[in-house]
Amino acid sequence: MPLTDSLRDEILASVPSLRAFAISLSGKSDRADDLVQETLLRALANIDSFQPGSNLPAWLFTILRNLFRSDYRKRRREVEDAEGSYSKTLKSQPAQSSHLEFEEFRTALEKLPQDQREALILVGASGFSYEDAAAICGCAVGTIKSRVNRARSKLSAMLYVDGTEDFGPDSTVRAVIGGGGT
Amino acid sequence: MKDPKPLTNKPAPKSGLNSEIQARIGHQLRAMYDDVVKQGVPDRFADLIRKLDAGETPGAEEGLPQNSIGRD
Fold first, then answer.
1. Which end of chain B, N or C, is surrounded by fewer C-beta atoms within 10 Å?
2. Domain ranges across chain B
């Protein structure tokens, strides 16, 4: 369909959640905003292929996710310096979490396999149904459900098993401790 | 670590602890995400859409690749 005013407004209204998705995926705000920009350019260039009445956010998230995936393969080596950059993008820490707890959570999220991280974010934060998330990721609904479940259990193993107070930033240690005794 | 149920000296009350932890994970995930959502639309993107609407090509200007999706 052509780019109408209302469609343009809807696309613009999706920008905040596209940014949140991009930052959650990549952990890097500068790269995340580049991803969002390229997503918008591609969406507008291909607006004719958008089906009127279908889920616009899901369509935009699909574009962003695919861009991130192809980009990620190219830049895998740069991922190492993602540590610590996420918090710079935040105007304030979430009031309900302590700074430390928040940083630990963010670090743990980055350690998840990409398939599981994106599934968890789409369902648990973006608020997509399992069906929409499956369409965005191009896989079966059952696959999304199991990825979300695995992501949740890995996060709880990293963050909450046997207490967290003595752990440093290396969550590999946490994962090992989470799997057995000391 | 293949052992699925590590026997520590404080066995977890399974479903109760588990659902509490899951709620906490969900809460933190949304807090992190919503903190970015609340930042709204940065000027950069509002400007981009405005320029595209006016028929300019900001992508070329900023050296972004011009290939489109759905071609391959």
1. C
2. 17-60
Q: Please tell me whether residues A103 and A72 are part of one structural domain.
A: no
What averages of pLDDT result for each successive group of 10 residues across chain A (182 residues)? 83 95 85 93 92 93 95 60 50 56 88 95 97 97 97 90 49 49 42
CB contact under 8 A, A152 and B59: no
Q: Are residues A126 and A166 in the same domain?
A: yes
Contacts of A101 in chain B (CB under 8 A): 28
Q: Are A92 and B35 in contact (CB under 8 A)?
A: yes
CA nearest to B36, candidates A147, A50, A30, A91: A91
Q: Which domain holds residue A127?
A: 97-182
Global confidence as pTM: 0.71
Question: ipTM, 2 decimals?
Answer: 0.73
Using a CB–CB cut-off of 8 Å, the residues of B that contact A are 1, 3, 6, 8, 18, 21-22, 24-42, 44-46, 48-49, 52-53, 58-59, 64-66, 68-70
